[in-house]
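Notebook p. 47: complex prediction with pyridoxal-5'-phosphate.
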Amino acid sequence: MKFIETRGNDGIKDKKVNFSDAILSPSASFGGLYVPESLPSVNLDFLKKHINSHYKELALDFLIEFDIDIDENILKEALNRYDDFDVPSNPIPLKKIEDECFVSELYHGQTRAFKDMALQPFGYILSKLAQSRDENYLIMAATSGDTGPATLETFKNQPNVKVACLYPEGGTSDVQRLQMVTEDADNVKVIGVKGNFDDTQSSLKSLLSSQDFKNELEAKNIKLSAANSVNFGRIIFQIIYHIHSYLEMVRENNIKMGEDIYLIVPSGNFGNALGGYYAKKAGLPVKKILIASNINNILTDWINQGEYDISNRELTLTDSPAMDILKSSNVERVLFDKFGANRTKELMEELDTNNKYKLTDNELSSLREDFDACYSDDNEGKIVIAHYAKNGYILDPHTATCLKAYNSLRKDKTPAIVYSTAEWTKFSSTVSSALEYEADDDLDALTWMSKSYDATVPDMISNLFNKDIKHTVIVETKSIKEEMLKFL
Ligand SMILES: *Cc1c(COP(=O)(O)O)cnc(C)c1O
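Predicted complex, structure tokens below:
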């Protein structure tokens, strides 16, 4: 399987690349992204073959069908990372919460957010590739709270890769911050930045484009890669759990094999939703993918009106910070898939120049064949959290945005899978506040929740509060480069 570029080829880069090249150097011509030339088939035969498969068996077979240039033994080792999930034989449990509403819990890994699903195996593969080519890579991430811990966790102590994470000081939950600053490994660096997530992200961008930083890296023989969902190495693992969740629905007799379902995805950078879209396109029986947003509802407008317009918008901070995004990167891969490289380049350039674009009526209908969308604000989210907590099921604020989609966008009684992207323990202060307890901090909220709602706090969360802090650096944006040079 070869990979091509969403904005076409510039005549300088190779027209087609292997998977390994696409993940080590994820930026394509004209600022575009890499996408596979085609997808393996997920038809009824494939689904029936895997009706009794362990998650890792399903995943390995899918990856082999994808025909990527990664040795089968390395793929197997990468998938063994799921052995550290709560229940290795089924890393993603499915829970029924309404008659036709089933929650697929994607957060049972090391950092309690769904980022582990893709980053765990991805990190292993990337480090192996770097070793086999005898190259050294630097991964830099600006994080609003979930990508950072998951990126550190997958790369810590892995050869030939260094990781630096920048987080906005005061912009993450206590648990998310502790997950980063207690990470103890020589190849990781965590820097708190004075400012909000936007400041953090833009200072990372300017650092990465500064010539003397590039010169430094070159002098030290270090190459740059990326671990955000712009990297197809993450997306490939995000197709698999949609297939697995469908099979779980069949295994638990919630649907018959071949029956359509809805997928409901709390979306930010659209990696999770894109995985669902690729699964549907490959043949998984999905009626539509319902996109849930918070008040930063750019995706709702895009899917309902065909308008992507950020010219008059400012980012609003919400209780679901991982969805606080205006430029959602993976939308571009859907544009490419539906409308081709020329049109994608045109639309993305329009977005860069005018901060907006509009799809034609035909393009919008094509988009709406696969997607529908709605959003909820923080207050609606808290009502959802309180309602389900009182019935014995605790949702995090990201997952909570999905219930409105379930109630208002479903056209009939077709069953739905809601993807739960984080455990409540990462956002315990918001959850306790929804239950009318204003906690002093996360530790207080976790303690109160476990007493009042008999909710379990896993060891990897409760232990954070006793671990040594290893990273104490907090800097102004202008001093990030200096800190990075010290680390390198
Ligand atoms: C990253 C994240 C999201 C958004 O996922 P995308 O793939 O970027 O759309 C939603 N919820 C949580 C908890 C996350 O960490």
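Notes: The two ends are 35 Å apart (CA to CA). Residues 91-112+233-458 form a domain with the Rossmann fold fold (CATH 3.40.50.1100).
Next step: compare against the earlier run before touching the bench.
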